[in-house]
Design goal:
single chain, about 300 residues, alpha+beta, 5-stranded antiparallel beta sheet
Length: about 300
C-alpha cells in the first residue's frame, strides 16, 4: 500500500525498507493550484528511480522539491550527491537516481511544473540535487512559508491558495538562484556561467544598480567573458537584464494580488529608477503603457467565462 501510494502521489519509485524494525509511515497531501504538496513521515528506506519507471510515468513535465523537516536523506543524481539535513532544500528532476532516508525522517515534497523554475533558472540539470542549506536565510524563508501554507490551506479559497503557491514558487526560485550564484569554479563550462548569471539576475532584479559589470563580478568572470558568452547565445547581457525586468513587471501588472500597487512602486520593485524610464521601456516592448496593459488585463479577466 505504501509503495502504491508513493507511486501515485510522488514518483514511480522502487522502495526497500532498511533495518529490522516494523515499517511505519504517514502521508498527508494537499493540492494548491498547480502544485502538489505531500508531507511524508517514515522509517528508514532506500528508493530508486529507474529509467524504465520514468518511461512509464506521466510526471516528466514536473520537478520535485524536497524540504527536509527531520532526519537525514541522501539524494544521488548522476555524479552529484546531496546530503539533506533538517531545513535543507533539494530539487529533484526526472532522471534516474536513488535516495536513502534515515529512521524517523520527515520531509515536505512539492511537485511543481518544471517550466516554472526552468523559465527563470535554465535547465533543471543545472540545479538538481544541489543542496540549499538551512543556514541560507532564503531557505529558511521558503521552509517557513510552505509549512505555514500547508497548515492554513483549508481556510483559503482555491484562487487564493493557487496565488499563495505561486508566491511560494517565486521565493523558491530566489533561493535556488542565490545558491547557484554563490560560487562559480574557475574553468567552469560557459553554459553554467550563463545559467548562474541568469539566476543572479532573477534574485537581484529589484536592484537598480544591477548592470553587466556588477553581474560579471558577482559570478566571478570578466565583463568581456560574460559578454562573449551571452553574444554566443544571441543576446546582450544588458538586454537580458532589462528584458527580465519588463517580463516580471508585466506579470505583476496582470496579477490581481498586485492590483493595489501604484505603477511607480511596481516599477521600483523591478529595478527601474523612475516611472518615466519604466513607462518608456514598457511601451517600446509591449506597445502600450503600463496603465493600459493593466487595464486590458482586468477587462480580459472580467470577460472570461
Amino acid at each position: 500500500m505504501w509503495r502504491e501510494t508513493i507511486y501515485d502521489r510522488l514518483s514511480p519509485l522502487e522502495i526497500t525498507k532498511i533495518g529490522d524494525r516494523p515499517f511505519e509511515g504517514a502521508i498527508e497531501a494537499a493540492d494548491l493550484g498547480s502544485m502538489l504538496v505531500t508531507r511524508v513521515s517514515s522509517g528508514a528506506t532506500r528508493t530508486r528511480l529507474t529509467a524504465d519507471a520514468l518511461r512509464r510515468s506521466d510526471k516528466d513535465a514536473t520537478v520535485t522539491v524536497a524540504i527536509m523537516l527531520s532526519g537525514v536523506s541522501t539524494f544521488t543524481r548522476d555524479d552529484r550527491e546531496a546530503v539533506q539535513r533538517p531545513g535543507d532544500i533539494v530539487v529533484l528532476d526526472r532522471r534516474p537516481g536513488s535516495t536513502q532516508s534515515s529512521d524517523d525522517s520527515r520531509a515536505l515534497f512539492l511537485e511543481i511544473p518544471a517550466h516554472r523554475l526552468e523559465s527563470m533558472l535554465g535547465s533543471a540539470r543545472q540545479f538538481a540535487a544541489l543542496n540549499i542549506a538551512s543556514d541560507q536565510a532564503s531557505a529558511s524563508l521558503v521552509r517557513t512559508f510552505f509549512d505555514e501554507l500547508v497548515q492554513i490551506h483549508q481556510q483559503l479559497d482555491p484562487e487564493t491558495a493557487a496565488r499563495m503557491s505561486s508566491i511560494g514558487i517565486d521565493l523558491l526560485v530566489a533561493s535556488i538562484a542565490e545558491r547557484m550564484a554563490r560560487d562559480v569554479p574557475t574553468g567552469v563550462d560557459g553554459n553554467l556561467v550563463v545559467q548562474r548569471a541568469k539566476a543572479y539576475i532573477e534574485t537581484n532584479l529589484h536592484d537598480p544598480t544591477l548592470d553587466p559589470p556588477h553581474l560579471a563580478a558577482a559570478v566571478g568572470v570578466s565583463l568581456r567573458r560574460l559578454q562573449e558568452l551571452f553574444h554566443a547565445r544571441g543576446r546582450h547581457v544588458s538586454d537580458w537584464i532589462w528584458g527580465r525586468r519588463l517580463d516580471v513587471a508585466a506579470l505583476r501588472l496582470t496579477d490581481p494580488g498586485c492590483g493595489h500597487l501604484a505603477i511607480g512602486l511596481l516599477a521600483h520593485g523591478c529595478g527601474f529608477s523612475s516611472q518615466a524610464h519604466f513607462s518608456r521601456r514598457f511601451r517600446d516592448r509591449f506597445g502600450m503603457t503600463p496603465s493600459e496593459y493593466r487595464h486590458a488585463a482586468r477587462l480580459a479577466a472580467a470577460s472570461a467565462p
